[in-house]
Amino acid sequence: MAVRTRIKIRHLIILFFLFYVVYTLVVQQLKMMDLARQEAELRQQIEMAIQQREQLKKQIQLLHTDSYIEKLARDKLGLVKPDEYIYKSNKSAP
């Protein structure tokens, strides 16, 4: 009977070890999948930041042009060139 008990204990130990290995592999696989998802999200955020940086570079270049500065002065500040007049309508929207 002692031999049979040792065999059962040995089987239980092997079974426990196999369960532990499988559990560890599954948990690690899930972590790897989560990290891959996070990496994809971060890559997408990086791409969006690069695009935004390029747009801002274009805006900065545009800000240094005389035509854009003139447009801002006219639209935002209401400035006019010498001998130029602004006509405003007093029409009310219905």
Relevant terms:
94 residues, mainly alpha, rod-shaped, FtsL/DivIC, membrane, Septum formation initiator family protein, transmembrane
Describe this structure in words.
With 94 residues, the chain is an all-alpha fold. Helices cover 79% and strands 0% of the residues. The protein has one domain. It has helices at 2-63, 66-77. The longest helix has 62 residues, at 2-63. The model has no long low-confidence stretch (mean pLDDT 87).
Q: Please state the overall shape, judged from the principal axes of the Cα atoms.
A: rod-shaped
SS element count, helices: 2
Q: How many E-type strands?
A: 0
Task: Please trace the helix and strand order, writing H or E for each element.
Answer: HH
Mean pLDDT: 87
How many structural domains in the coordinates?
A: 1
Residues in helix, %: over 70%
Organism: Biomaibacter acetigenes
Pfam families: DivIC
GO biological process, one term: FtsZ-dependent cytokinesis
Protein name: Septum formation initiator family protein
Can you lay out the helices and strands and say which pair or pack?
Blueprint: H1 2-63, H2 66-77
Concise summary:
The chain is mainly α and 94 residues long.
